[in-house]
Amino acid sequence: MKFWPVILTRHRILLLLLVLVFAWSLFSVNWSGSIIHTGGRSSFLKLWLSLFPPDLSPGFLLIASKATWTTFTFAVMGIVLAITLGLPMGVIASGILFERSSVNRVPIIIVFRGLLAGMRAVHELVWAVVLVVAIGLSPVAGIIALGIPYAGILGRIYAELLQSTPRAPIDALSQTGASQLKILFYGYIPAVLPDMLSYTFYRFECSIRAAAILSFIGIQGLGYQIQLSLHDLLFDQVWTLLLFLILLIVLVDLWSTRIRRSLLA
Amino acid sequence: MIIDENKSLIVARNVTKYYGPFKALDSVTFTAEPGELVAVAGPSGSGKTSLLHSLAGIIHPDYGEVLVDGNDLAEFQSRKERCSLVGIIHQQYDLVPQLPVIHNVLAGHLGRWGLFTSLLSLVWARDRRQAYDILLQLGIADKIDDKTSKLSGGEQQRVAIARMMIQSPQLVLADEPVASLDPSRAEEGLRLITDLITDSNKTLVITLHSPHLIREYCSRVIGLREGKLIFDLPTSEVYDHHFDQLYDIGH
Amino acid sequence: MSKFALIVIATNNTLRHMSFTKGSLFLFGIFIIVSWGFIFLPGDSGFVELFRLETWTNIKIFILRLTGTESDLTPAFFQVDRWIATSKLAYQTLAMSILAMAIAGIGAFLTMVWAARNVSNGDLGGVPSIFGNVMYYLIRANYVVSRAVPELVWAMIIVFFLSPGILPGALALGLHNLGIVGRLTAEVIENLDPASSVSLRSAGASNSQILMYGIMPQAMPHFITYLLYRWEVVIRTTVVVGFVSAGGLGREFILRLNWFHYTDVTLILIWYLLMVIGVDLLSSWLRKIVDAD
Fold this sequence. Notes:
The structure holds three protein chains of three kinds.
Chain A: H1 4-7, H2 10-27, H3 40-49, H4 58-94, H5 105-121, H6 124-135, H7 139-163, H8 167-175, H9 180-214, H10 222-231, H11 235-263
Chain B: E1 10-19, E2 22-32, E3 37-41, H1 48-56, E4 63-68, E5 71-72, H2 79-85, E6 86-89, H3 101-106, H4 115-123, H5 128-138, H6 153-167, E7 171-175, H7 183-199, E8 203-207, H8 211-217, E9 220-225, E10 228-234, H9 240-247
Helix pairs in contact in B: 5-6, 6-7
Chain C: H1 3-15, H2 19-40, H3 53-67, H4 80-111, H5 117-120, H6 130-148, H7 151-158, H8 166-190, H9 195-202, H10 207-245, H11 248-258, H12 262-292
């Protein structure tokens, strides 16, 4: 009867590895007495006390609402840019336009997938910092910083969706002599549209969070206001802004989930 | 033959069960003695599964009562006592796909084991020897550490049987356990089950839709149709027209 | 027929029966127009700057500086000692991401069971309890809050009472992803086939035993896959969180940028890309192992 090989199943080894790695990461933390700030404890307490109640003065509510709206519009424009860039790139990266032509599509696919991966790899904040240095602090910098990585994310998913469409309707269309571009519109897009819309709306929800973060670097929005209030130690204002942010995200999440449910039904 | 209800293993009296407006069981009454191999026959929707579930204590009748070894299942006590009394195998075996075979088999002990023991056993299997011996009897000992989902249908059935043997209840219920197997595997499976039952002096109530299998392996047949008990006879006295009655052929 | 008309027709055909979606798209279209107006009409959006020669010259200079061709000094990414110095930071960043995943993993593992509706309301054969239902709403609410708040905001808040370093960042990332992984796995649990749990119950198992033998084995593969997948996302954010929590590569990035040490910035970007690619590969490989079994 086997004994040793049984004890060392793949899963057990993996589990052991995970535990070891976790332990290692704990060692990297500097667990000295100063781990908690001087005054950290009182700040912590103050933070929680400020939740009841948060700053609900009309003046501040106005500021919070404006910031929320700003963040929302940034997210919308950012995702629009992402779709505008990501869709064509995704279509090209899927290679379906070149299926019947004599052009060798492999290098094209590699190049475009690589481009998308590169756009994706860099976090939107890093893009933002780079863009601000290059073109200065402006709304457009924030929108582009959001649009580029999200174009990479969307483009990759669009390419994968397009590549995995069922062949039969496509082949039937090509029998009618339609050009590849027409087949794209008549055959591919209707097939992948539900999944594409579903994923795009999911990413829209993520883009709101990203837009909130981007506003930290000085572009107006919720993140910017949170930073201001934190600096002044006005924790009740911070809570108000957080509540607005959570509310916005929950609303968009509900909307997005509802859409996805009706699409994939 | 006088049936002493105090000694009968199963006593079912006027068992009636509704699912909403639908009457699944209609005043079903029968008894079963220890050691019997009872087949329940009937078309789908006739109430076979509902009957088995009320014998298992999974559902409780709206009217009437079910007594297993003198105990009314509707008012049951601890799961420990109930699971040593009744056990059930379903058509789909319902094993946990990701667990290795040995843990699915040893799950038969869960009624007896405490929390800590159950957890510990997942890491270091208790009673490994016992599980191995049973699987050896069933011919699949070499699969003991394989992931259950990797086994074929016939092999999974034997894992379910092994679990039942570990649980070792007095009354074994089986709901169409061989329906998803091809004929030769089905016979093999039934032979295994019935041999194990008779060897250990247990009682079996099994639903089957094949008259041939019923005649081969069971000592008694109960026929259900639309929730009503149509006949209750020893196998030797059951003829084709009895089955036809159930399946409404020719009417 | 113009191509535009083709697009409209194809889209319309698909969406004909999906009125909620259509309405949503229409609404979204309105949002687009309004947002466009809000951002670009006032004139200070920076849009015009994009097209000025000055801007593009700036960008060109910036890129030249990053690649080190603008000055005569040896770029940082060709100096071995700089590589060694920054490798420590990369190591810290990696540790931060792993600690974050551990926090997210343990937290989600402990709470995800109650977040599944079928466990809390007794569908899996257990007795529905008030405790269970309360826990369900409590934990789900927790998940929503932790998911909704971006990691950076968590980090900024945490930095107020924990000293800067890896821990605040790891905690922030961990809390955020806890909600994500917890919710995803809870949804998997909700969609499990109850058959094996019912079968275990008739073999005599108690609620906790059903959890151990029936639910966890089925949920774990998905749980680990979600954790590994989130790790890929987390490593990208870890660098950024380092800005705020002052740990790892992120802090160095900001410092070097402020000091205009452009080639050092490039060196950090290279490390960043290396780690992102490395974690992506590692995560895919581990996910294959988990799926294969």
